[in-house]
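cron nightly-structures :: item 1 of 1
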Amino acid sequence: MNQSAIFWPVLAHVLLIYIVYGVMSRRRYFAVKSGEAKAGQYKVRSTEPASSITVANNLINQFELPVLFYVLCLALHQTNGVNYLTLALMWVFVASRYVHAWIHLTSNRLMLRRRAFFVGAVVLALAWIWFALHLLGAV
């Protein structure tokens, strides 16, 4: 398998981050334009209006658990650990991040959002376990 294939899920997650930035910019722009907020409110997150704070929070989420995803992708690439299983796990993780973001930025239903997060966290943990076994030469 081409070891560089591991970077396609990485690029897909990077795209998600830029999409969330776009949503945040749009919501902030329209909050100011409609009078819901003043531009100065964005200096401190605690004064940001509800219409955009959720997006800002989601953006922060994209740099928490995904940090482990990025490190793992690089480690898999460096150790020739990319195979169909690891690639599938990484794609499932990225899909879970898209679902999580979609829920967070639309209905923001906590139980659904929690489930999407949990799927991603478990899949990523399984991938890390596989990586440890790979390093031990057990897989």
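cron nightly-structures :: done
The chain has one domain: 3-136.
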